[in-house]
Write a structure and sequence with these properties.
527 residues, alpha/beta, 6-stranded parallel β-sheet, globular
Length: 527
């Protein structure tokens, strides 16, 4: 179905096939280390244009991809797909910019999506790519790639932010978005987009990532992407070491105050470095150290008293308004969970004890399991079939295995488990499938299926028909120190909101509290 031929780009020799002059086609320019992917209706003429471009002189070969069923809608779509997957494949460093990346609809797209798998297998046989599509789709490099195709919502947000940043003077742009709406994807895409743009070429730009494990992942990705550097992915304390023109702050709700944290000494030192007191927080550091700030925020993902809750966040915004032009953007389309926005709203209602009628979601598995052994076995089965399936829980058990690796932390119905042995890159670690992840090892990551344990720190008052918490059963000392009952209840609810929105294909629940189990069973199918 697909014909792939090789041409000599250095000598401008491509063969005599008629389709090289007038047919929609794809091509891959490469030199063994770097690649550029493109499409054209007149590839021979396009090669002449590339030959006279200084930045394309690094290439010596070209691979033409022909199909009698190609039209230009298909080649535009396949070009975007090839850029995304070849960048994640890591055989080549992809040299494309990402300005034109967007999700495209066209006639018979579903059929062509299936045929793309055939093309990819052909590229594997030709040794132009290494990994299978399934392997790549489960990789962080694919998920957080700056070459992701954006939906209309995300594309509009990128354009709005870029337009705002072109204006003179200091800017503050707030991007609100629920879990799975693509905040991190937009932040990474925007970083590449700005770095590739002539208008921002001289600007010093950084991406602030509060979460250590995600920061490590993104540094690895930036290191492998043409035009980006690992040093441009920053911790909050990195920000205090120099001034920036533009800072993009991912997961702003995860920035910290000088409160209930384990690194008070370094926090003080960072404050002193830029002349602030410990009354300030990491968001203050960002605003102090840049001319323009883009803040990605979700008020429902603040999971402890050290975070930047919505009241504190809004105070900062109000205080900055006289100095900075303020723009609000919103990501409203659910991209992670196949249950869509309706599922996210349903989770919110479940955790608030406010569900009135049972809902089911097409293409999404929300299930309750009452037998923990069955719950555990189902997880292993799903992992074998789909990979990237993990068990996670609220912090309802102590963590003795942290000091003694021979001990178990969690025991339910005779099944013993340990908490995550690490937080950095735990999701992708070999041991993760046998462990239970806490909020700090899971937040910000995608799973194919989430197997979530609701512990005895959360329950249900059937008489009052409302959720309750048991602080004595909540073992995150930093998470509950100085928190009133009402605040702690909110943090615990937020933790489960995050955990229940990790699964792309489905979420399975095991509930320790009998009254809560009974309440949830009215609205979630039991298996």
């Amino acid at each position: 179905m697909f014909k792939i031929t090789e041409g000599n780009f250095k000598k401008q020799k491509y063969g005599e096939e008629s389709y090289l002059s007038n047919w929609p086609m794809l091509y891959i320019l490469e030199n063994g280390k770097q690649a550029y992917i493109g499409q054209s209706n007149h590839v021979r003429d396009r090669m002449a244009q590339h030959y006279h471009s200084i930045d394309k002189r690094i290439f010596d070969k070209v691979h033409f991809i022909y199909c009698s069923k190609f039209n230009q809608s298909v080649t535009f779509d396949y070009e975007s797909k090839l850029i995304q997957y070849i960048a994640a494949d890591e055989l080549y460093e992809v040299c494309n910019k990402n300005a034109g990346m967007a999700d495209k609809e066209y006639y018979r797209k579903k059929e062509y999506d299936e045929k793309f798998q055939v093309l990819w297998r052909r590229l594997q046989r030709e040794k132009l790519v290494k990994h299978s599509l399934e392997e790549l789709e489960n990789s962080d490099l694919f998920k957080y790639s700056p070459y992701k195709e954006l939906n209309n919502d995300q594309r509009t947000t990128v354009d709005e932010i870029a337009e705002s940043l072109k204006h003179q003077g200091q800017q503050m742009i707030v991007v609100n978005g629920m879990p799975g709406s693509g905040k991190t994807i937009v932040a990474v895409f925007l970083m590449k987009y700005l770095k590739d743009s002539e208008e921002f070429k001289e600007k010093k730009i950084g991406l602030v990532v509060p979460q250590t494990s995600l920061r490590k992942t993104l540094k690895r990705i930036f290191k492998s992407i043409y035009g980006l550097k690992a040093s441009e992915v920053l911790s909050p304390s990195d920000v205090t070491k120099q001034h920036y023109d533009i800072l993009l702050a991912d997961e702003t709700h995860r920035l910290h105050q000088y409160k209930n944290i384990s690194y008070m000494g370094p926090f003080k030192a960072s404050c002193r470095r830029i002349g602030l007191t410990t009354e300030s927080d990491e968001l203050d550091w960002i605003l102090h150290q840049c001319d323009s700030a883009v803040l990605f925020y979700d008020k429902m993902q603040v999971v402890g008293p050290s975070g930047i809750d919505v009241v504190r966040f809004q105070k900062k915004i109000n205080a900055e308004q006289p100095k900075r032009a303020l723009t609000y953007c919103s990501l409203q389309t659910q991209m992670r969970v196949k249950g869509g926005n309706g599922y996210i709203e349903y989770v919110e209602q479940l955790l608030a004890g406010q569900v009135k009628e049972k809902k089911k979601f097409e293409d999404y598995e929300l299930k309750l399991v009452t037998d923990f052994r069955k719950f555990n076995d189902l997880m292993y089965r799903k992992e074998k079939e789909f990979q990237l399936v993990r068990m996670a829980a609220g912090y309802a058990w102590p963590w003795p295995s942290k000091k003694d690796g021979s001990l178990y932390d969690i025991e339910i119905q005779g099944v013993e488990k340990q908490w995550n042995h690490c937080t950095e890159d735990w999701i992708l670690s070999r041991e993760a499938i046998d462990e239970v992840g806490c909020i700090h090892s899971v937040q910000g990551y995608d799973l194919n299926y989430g197997f979530i344990i609701l512990g005895n720190e959360i329950g249900y008052d059937a008489e009052k028909q409302c959720m309750l918490i048991r602080p004595q059963n909540y073992f995150d000392q930093n998470g509950k120190r100085s928190a009133e009952y009402k605040d702690l209840k909110e943090y615990i609810r937020h933790i489960y909101y995050v955990l229940l929105t990790r699964g792309i294909r489905g979420t399975y629940l095991y509930i320790c509290d009998p009254a809560l189990r009974e309440y949830i069973s009215e609205y979630v199918d039991t298996v």
